[in-house]
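Inverse folding, one chain.
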């Protein structure tokens, strides 16, 4: 039977690329989306069908809500099958310099980007251990490694993700469950497309390979780490940033 994969933040540009990569790999890819995005999901599904990916599923979840995550996993397990692959990709930004950042901006990012990883992983990890197989990939960021002006909340949450990865990887290692982090650099998306040319050129000047990454660059790495053959890779942090930051 094909293994079932949940991808949070599944209808964004990166989530979509990951869903398609895992579906191509033979997985049943489930895009988990924020409930308020219901109308966008209909268009997303139509677009995927036009691309030949009519097999992609979509379910709502609020990763900041533990019970919502439990409901998602229960629905997927009842309607499709056991969740054997989890990609924690959902994230938000509430950028501000610390001097002006309010507690709401801090809390929103920490709860969604970091606590959300716990909320989702908690629903599937024990069952993966019991079955003796599982793949978890947590999406962090280059900004977790080098910091970023005006993003202390985002950088802190994304840095915390890899600490979580390391600890859970140690717990899962003897049971066939791998846990890894992927840390993307600057990726081409709607935000970068809207940037003024001079700002974009300044960004590109900081990337040695001379281009922005693509969602597919990241999705290929996720597919690699979630492959059946990737069982000897756990606790790793794969940096995909075009050489913009070495560590």
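Residues assigned per position:
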């Amino acid at each position: 039977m094909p293994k079932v994969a949940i991808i949070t933040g599944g209808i964004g540009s990166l989530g979509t690329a990951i869903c398609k990569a895992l579906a191509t790999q033979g997985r049943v890819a489930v895009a988990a989306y924020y409930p308020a995005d219901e109308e966008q999901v209909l268009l997303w599904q139509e677009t995927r069908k036009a691309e030949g990916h009519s097999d992609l599923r979509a379910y709502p979840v609020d990763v900041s809500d533990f019970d919502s995550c439990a409901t998602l996993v229960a629905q997927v397990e009842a309607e499709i099958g056991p969740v054997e692959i989890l990609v924690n990709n959902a994230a938000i930004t509430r950028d501000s310099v610390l001097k002006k950042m309010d507690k709401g901006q801090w809390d929103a990012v920490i709860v969604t980007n970091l606590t959300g990883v716990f909320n989702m992983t908690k629903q599937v990890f024990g069952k993966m251990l019991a079955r003796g197989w599982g793949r978890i990939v947590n999406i962090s960021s280059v900004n977790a490694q080098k910091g970023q002006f005006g993003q202390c909340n985002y950088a802190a949450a994304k840095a915390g993700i890899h600490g979580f990865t390391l600890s859970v990887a140690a717990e899962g290692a003897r049971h066939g469950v791998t846990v890894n982090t992927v840390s993307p650099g600057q990726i081409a998306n709607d935000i970068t497309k809207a940037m003024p040319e001079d700002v974009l050129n300044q960004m590109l000047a900081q990337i040695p390979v001379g281009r922005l990454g693509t969602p597919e660059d990241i999705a290929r790495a996720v597919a690699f780490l979630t492959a059946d053959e990737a069982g000897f890779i756990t606790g790793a942090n794969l940096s995909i940033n075009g050489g913009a930051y070495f560590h």
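The chain has a mean pLDDT of 95. The chain is about 50% helix and 15% strand.
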